[in-house]
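TASK: fixed-backbone design
INPUT:
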């Protein structure tokens, strides 16, 4: 399995405060990979370091074969075009329509003419399950679920190899959350992309991610699929996972496998 992202001995420190102290993990091509952790464990910080919004204090992150600490400005710009990012609250530009939000990267990084840009915009809007007319709406006219989908369409504008999602179902009702999880799986299968998802949702971990890591005590305390992670006796994992819900879901999975 080809590694798309590899994090080795990562340290993140602000003054005397250490957030990460020797974080190590890897993400394989084509998988949906989750990052889970207790509050203050630095999940979003880790993602920001992966997408070069922040630089770690030490350690190494390799993305799509490029060591982030060793690339120059032009290489970094080329690399950024190979991933899309969905931030927790969408982060759409409120003064722009949905279509204009999606168009931003196409105008900045490509020489595609207006007619083709409009076709791409319509395709991306439909791809995330929104009506084409949503392209003419402003973020203030959208529901929470529509904002998530519009932001996802923007993240997919450049046909990325990697998709980063920061708490993608945060603020959604249970039905909307499950629909969004299903959409992520469908897009991964359809587009062949690799997805990195920060989440604390048990149902997402059970039904959507292939593997995940757990951040606690400034490091990764477990990594793998759900069954692998449950073998850990770390207190956070015991508290978060050892409950009737997870046991029921595991029983269902075993039952399906037997059949």
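OUTPUT:
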């Amino acid at each position: 399995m080809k590694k798309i992202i590899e994090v080795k001995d990562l340290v993140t420190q602000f003054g005397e405060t250490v957030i990460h102290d020797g974080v190590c993990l890897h993400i394989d091509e084509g998988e949906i990979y989750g990052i889970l952790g207790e509050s203050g464990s630095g999940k979003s910080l880790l993602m920001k370091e992966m997408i070069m919004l922040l630089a770690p204090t030490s350690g190494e992150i390799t993305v799509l074969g490029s060591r982030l600490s060793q690339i120059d400005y032009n290489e970094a710009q080329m690399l950024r075009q190979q991933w899309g990012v969905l931030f927790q609250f969408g982060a759409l530009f409120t003064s722009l329509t949905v279509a204009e939000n999606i168009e931003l990267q196409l105008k900045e990084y490509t020489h595609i003419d207006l007619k083709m840009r409009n076709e791409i915009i319509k395709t991306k809007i439909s791809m995330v399950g929104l009506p084409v007319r949503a392209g003419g709406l402003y973020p203030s006219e959208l529901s929470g679920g529509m904002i998530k989908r519009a932001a996802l369409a923007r993240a997919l504008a450049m046909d990325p190899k990697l998709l980063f999602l920061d708490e993608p179902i945060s603020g959604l009702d249970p039905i909307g959350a499950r629909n969004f999880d299903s959409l992520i799986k469908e897009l991964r299968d359809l587009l062949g992309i690799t997805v990195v998802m920060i989440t604390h949702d048990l149902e997402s971990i059970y039904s959507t991610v292939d593997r995940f890591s757990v951040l606690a005590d400034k490091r990764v305390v477990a990594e793998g699929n759900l069954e692998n992670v449950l073998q850990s006796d770390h207190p956070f994992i015991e508290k978060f996972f050892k409950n009737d819900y997870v046991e029921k879901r595991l029983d269902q999975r075993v039952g399906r496998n037997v059949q």
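COMMENT: The mean pLDDT is 89.
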